[in-house]
Write a structure and sequence with these properties.
This protein is an all-alpha fold. It has one domain (3-111): Cytochrome c-like domain (Cytochrome Bc1 Complex, Chain D, domain 2, Orthogonal Bundle), CATH 1.10.760.10. The chain is built from 5 helices and no strands. The two termini are 23 Å apart. The relative contact order is 0.15. Bound molecules: heme C.
């Protein structure tokens, strides 16, 4: 991926992280009940939208995540996390999530429809 894509991504990443803080603050109160699992998945996956497009639909050269097989997404994220696959940025990102969180994120994106 060209360096310029990464640079244009960073301000959006920061904006997303700030927005994420607001979302977490707003949702912390009612993160119980049936929707708690879905909310957790959304919060964990929100960061990914910055680069992989809204709802993981893909953005420029960055691949779409929506509607992909959960097992494939898990395997790729684990490979980035463990360093058996090298990317420009995904290694650092994947290391920030536990194995259980990777499973939640992969299942979430697999459930989203590819437009
Ligand atoms: C800062 C931008 C950025 C963010 C944030 C980001 N990604 Fe990525 N992602 C990339 C890029 C760029 C690649 C291509 C591999 C590389 O260069 O690291 C990629 C590749 C991937 C791939 C491999 C896709 C394929 O077809 O091989 C998966 C899976 C993935 N990302 C999942 C995620 C998930 C899940 C999140 C959120 C936890 C996330 N990414 C957050 C930029 C990002």
């Amino acid at each position: 991926m060209p360096e310029s894509n990464l640079l244009t991504c960073l301000p959006r990443l920061l904006a997303t992280l700030m927005l994420c803080g607001v979302v977490i603050a707003v949702q912390a109160d009612d993160a119980t009940g049936d929707n708690a699992g879905l909310r957790r998945a959304q919060m964990l996956s929100f960061n990914c939208f910055t680069c992989h497009g809204p709802e993981g639909q893909g953005s420029g050269e960055i691949p779409a995540l929506a509607g992909r097989a959960a097992d494939e997404l898990k395997a790729r994220l684990q490979a980035y996390k463990r360093g058996t696959k090298q990317g420009t940025i995904m290694n650092r990102i994947a290391r920030g999530y536990s194995d259980a969180e990777i499973d939640i994120i992969a299942d979430y994106f697999a459930e989203l429809e590819r437009e």
